């Protein structure tokens, strides 16, 4: 609860019990903010909010009717005002914790999750992002990768009240552009990489990079910017405008933290970790070169948090992977299954390249599809990549929404000429088919869904067990049954 004069420049000391931007959830003695969203204008729902009990209306346009007993504040931008007021209403929670924001086209989830897990050994830590919202053993679904300002401030308040000291959160380009984190006090900002993505929203690569760069403008002089020197365009864009401390990491370009002499294996990676002038050989349970870059981002962030280097090395050598992010499934049979979220064409390329680098005599079998009503150009790109790197391809459902699955798969398939490719619309059957045709040393890549346990359709999200569960169930069904019956597994032995 706050007094109105604690939130606005007014003499009125009315008690305010809640603040809202959705009229459906308005309660008595609350403030309603008329937010102009991408598809809905909150000014249309003022009367609903008043009926529900709102006593204060914050708006930026003329209203059709003004009630005598309602207080109105007209502002230039209601979203800016919502950021300011929600931060005050929840007692500026980000000022009371260490907040690490991670932005980039890919790697945000892995880096933020690993920072959270590393810090959990020393203090109560939290995570906010694509997978969930987590702290103190609690885990709940997050509405967006970067939640809206009001939700975010409320959750940071709850985390602080629960004793959380460090929060690692993903800061998406959408979230940054839509001002969702404008009132969050960041201590550390981390950049991973930038690909051509979300241009339907941002318009140009320049706008996209400007959105990501905004995170670093939110740092003060005491903060730390963690930059990837291998991403030359972005590094050049922001390096001279940052007013905080800067620490860098990279593989190809000189940086404070580097990886040298990299060796990739199907189940781990090894490299020499160089921190300034120190060199340490490390073995980490993550797959692919791009994940080594993510590990470097984590190491650099922990250095900014003043963790000793030997503790950091111990942490990364025993780090837990992230569900659905280059996750090698555990089973006793002589072929390999990797599940990855893989949302961008560039991510597909890197996963395929990794499989090509580590495979022995086996084949690369890929199972994937493409989302409906979204980034049609991606279908051509991933089709061409599969044609270049894969030996067999099974195209299947992946969040088709209201598009026909067969049509989506045909859009991809026309770019696949060299490998054998088939369309199996049911994703469970497609995964089971990939497992069934596996030979010794084959690498099966199940791409596009990662940790997700739903399938987006025209009427909402349909339940789906998840790629990992489906694959392990198929392995157990196909091969465990044969072992139990005493049969020879001639196919893979």
Characterization of the model:
The chain is of the alpha/beta class and about 500 residues long. About 35% of the residues lie in helices and about 25% in strands. It contains 16 helices and 25 strands. Helix 10 packs antiparallel against helix 11 and helix 12 runs parallel beside helix 13. About 45% of the residues are buried. The C terminus is likely disordered.
Major beta sheet, strand line-up: 10-9-8-11-7-12-13-14-15-16-17
Q: What is the helix fraction of residues, given as a range? A: 25-40%
Overall, the morphology is globular
Give a quick account of the main beta sheet: strands, pairing sense, barrel closure: 11 strands, mixed
In a nutshell, what does this entry contain?
This protein has 493 residues and is of the alpha/beta class. The longest helix has 18 residues, at 467-484. The chain is globular and about 80 Å long.
Features:
alpha/beta, 25 strands, 493 residues, eleven-stranded mixed β-sheet, six-stranded mixed β-sheet, 16 helices
Task: Lay out the secondary structure.
Layout: E1 2-3, H1 4-7, E2 15-16, E3 18-20, E4 30-33, H2 46-52, E5 54-59, E6 71-74, H3 78-89, E7 98-103, H4 108-119, E8 125-128, E9 133-135, E10 138-140, H5 149-161, E11 166-170, H6 173-177, E12 188-191, H7 199-202, H8 205-217, E13 224-228, H9 232-238, E14 245-250, E15 257-264, E16 269-275, E17 278-284, H10 289-304, H11 309-317, E18 327-328, E19 336-340, H12 345-358, E20 364-368, H13 377-389, E21 392-395, H14 405-413, E22 420-423, H15 427-436, E23 443-447, E24 454-457, E25 460-463, H16 467-484
Parallel strand pairs: 3-4, 4-5, 5-6, 7-11, 7-12, 8-11, 12-13, 13-14, 14-15, 19-23, 20-21, 20-23, 21-22
Antiparallel strand pairs: 1-2, 8-9, 9-10, 15-16, 16-17, 18-19, 24-25
Helix pairs in contact: 3-5, 4-10, 10-11, 12-13, 13-14, 15-16
